[in-house]
Structures are given as structure tokens and as C-alpha cells.
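Aim 2 progress. For Transgelin, the working sequence is reproduced below.
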Amino acid sequence: MANKGPAYGLSREVQSKIDKKYDPELEDRLVQWIIAQCGDSVGKPQPGKQGFQQWLKDGCVLCELINSLAKDSKPVKKIQSSSMAFKQMEQISQFLGAAERYGVTKSDMFQTVDLWEGKDLAAVQMTLLSLGSLAVTKDDGCYRGDPSWFHKKSQENKREFSDEQLKEGQSVIGLQMGTNKGASQAGMTGYGYAGKGK
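Predicted C-alpha cells for this construct:
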């Protein structure tokens, strides 16, 4: 964590809610995948949230990960370990840019401070989960690891209909519009008619 004092009141409550979203089981799966994808050279983090953050904090492991998913040219050209904060944040930003170009949506991305300051490690997990799902879905031979670790994203399933089929569809009344089977006017009376003899 950065040089921040303890949180009080609403800040503490909000941070507590964010911390509860962190999933230790997902952490294990992500660590297994990153090591399978990048090799043993990336090391292994200490178990737990802080260990996971420290492992990814300088951005090197993340950049190795995104590079391992690329076929030809590496999206992050220069990966350097550094103890300087701005260099570490720059590496994280390079990973985020490369992940976005790979196909991870902006809404699935974490912010640099989420990882670097440890503000929202659940968001970091979601970005990595989304990246893994994309890698499995692309099925371009770059993904290493167990495909069951991630779900495949849905893909477009275009259908082509002939003009004849489209015309046929216009004459069909869909069931969501209701049905008139068994409907009759038996027992119906006109408005304002009170009946005979009254």
C-alpha cells in the first residue's frame, strides 16, 4: 500500500466492501494460469492478497503474460524490472493498453492504482479473468493451460434468411402475442344490456 493512513467512517466501509469481492480461489486459478502461460521464470507469489499484489505490482509479470498471448510481434517491447514507482506504473499501463488491443473491454479493465496501491485487487482479478476467457475463445494456439479454467465468450452466430422465409414469418402470429385457441363469444352480452325481464 502507498503512504496512506488508516481509513475511517465511510472510506473504511467502502474499502471493506471492495475487499470482500476479492476471491482467493480465483487467485489460485489465475496464478496457475500465469505460470503455465509464461513459464516458471515469473516465479510464484506468496499466498494471499498481499502476495498476489506484490507479484504483479511492478507490471513485469503482466507484460510477460500479454506477450505470451501474442503470435508474432510482442505488444510490450521492453519489459524492465524497476524499483521506481513511476516505471512500475508505466509497465502496468503498457499491459492495460496491450490488453485492450487484445480485446478486453474497457469496462473489464482495472485502473493502475487498483493494482499498484492495492485499492481494488478484485478488479485486477476480473481483468485477468476476462483476458483468460478471450485467450480461450480465440483458440489461436497461444493459450497454455487448462481451457476449463475460463469460460468461452459467446461469439456471433449470424443467420441468413431468404426473402421467401422472411415473408412466411410475417404471416405467423407469435405466441408471445397470445393465442385465440378455444376463444368464443358464447355468453357475451352487449354493453349496457342488463338481461331479460329486468
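The first helix runs from residue 9 to 20. This observation will guide construct design in the next reporting period.
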